[in-house]
Amino acid sequence: MTIVAVLIGAAIGAPVRYLVDRAVQARHESVFPWGTFAVNVTGSLILGALAGLSTSDTVNHLVGIGFCGALTTYSTFGYETARLAQEGARPLAVLNAIASIAAGLGAAYLGITIAQAVS
């Protein structure tokens, strides 16, 4: 059952990641990777909320590993940050690295806090 839950979550998370990334990025003229930033922060919030709740292993596998694993993307974050630096947008590369880490950690903490307050 574990692998099925992970597969279902990933099958939903991957297209959501693509669609959200494209929708967010299309609204910005900047070379800053707003789409990747948005999905990574959102995924951190969801994972934080999941960590703050008492959920079953199946839910953890479906939402945490499957959905959030496919929704968030460290490799794209790394690639886009390196690309910004190579293309001469070093300040944006540094901003992306710092803001992504800070916002991701903040979102995870916020998710935990909200989940604990609700439950």
Q: Tell me, what's the shape?
A: globular
- Mean pLDDT score, rounded? 96
As a percent range, the share of helical residues equals over 70%
Q: How would a crystallographer describe the biggest sheet? A: none
Please give the alpha-carbon distance between the first and last residues: 26 Å
Query: How many beta-strand runs?
Result: 0
Taking Cα atoms only, what radius of gyration do you get, to the nearest Å? 15 Å
Can you tell me the residue ranges where pLDDT is under 50 for at least 5 consecutive residues?
none
Work out the helix count. 5
What order do the SSEs take from the amino end to the carboxyl end, as H and E? HHHHH
Quick synopsis:
By secondary structure, this protein is mainly α. It is built from 5 helices and no strands.
What does this structure look like?
By secondary structure, the protein is mainly α. Helix content is 85%, strand content 0%. It contains five helices and no strands. The radius of gyration is 15 Å and the shape is globular. It starts with a helix and ends with a helix. The relative contact order is 0.20. The mean pLDDT is 96.
Per-chain topology:
Elements: H1 2-26, H2 34-52, H3 57-71, H4 74-86, H5 90-118
Helix pairs in contact: 1-2, 1-3, 2-3, 2-5, 4-5
Q: What would the keywords be for this entry?
A:
119 residues, 85% helix, mainly alpha, globular
